[in-house]
Amino acid sequence: MHGAEHLLEIFYLLLAAQLMAFVFKRLNQPVVIGEVLAGVLVGPALLGLVHEGEVLEFLAELGAVFLLFMVGLETRLRDILAVGKEAFLVAVLGVVLPFLGGYLYGLQIGFETLPALFLGTALVATSVGITARVLQELGVLSRPYSRIILGAAVIDDVLGLIVLAVVNGVAETGQVEVGAITRLIVLSVVFVGLAVFLSTLIARLPVERLPVGSPLGFALTLGVGMAALAASIGLAPIVGAFLGECFSPRCGKSTVWRSPSSP
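RESULT FIELD:
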């Protein structure tokens, strides 16, 4: 597909998203719901103006990274850690209950054990991007329950990958791949530990004195870098983007978007 066709598809997506966002805003509903429906409308299921491809998949993932990047700017890592116990409990329940429900339902409708396990695993997946966007629209990202939701989403991503690794190992070899699961857990802990360490180191540094061209450039580097690192170890890139930006200097005041000379 040529570049002009890609640009035309992106135009259709943007136009439909803007129109549906306007409609849902007038209905006092979350704008993100209208934007999701806009994708369904212009996609292959209905109008067929936009088709799946590597370019659109990359842009969609990049958009999710920047969404969590923006949410991270309004959230401090220490606030997430302060509700760690509650977030962990929510994450565990958010994994166990859907998994068991999907597995038992699969058995009930006649699935074999393995397909039922994969059905339960599929239900474990969450859409933290949609949740974060709704919380951002409502202006409640600083509320304790929002921190619990976002913290649980990060933990849920790790737990979901562990469940997938277990089920996938059973499907391929008939046994649990302990080595792969241990590696995933260790890498996840190291990744979050790295975020905590950097949060204590970087948060104390004034942006104006850092050897960077602009605060925005520095924040973007952190967000994209952590997203890339998360993807390289098997985590969702959006988790890396969120953790990277939630410990940016002056996070939560949006001053990172302005240059040092701005009022």
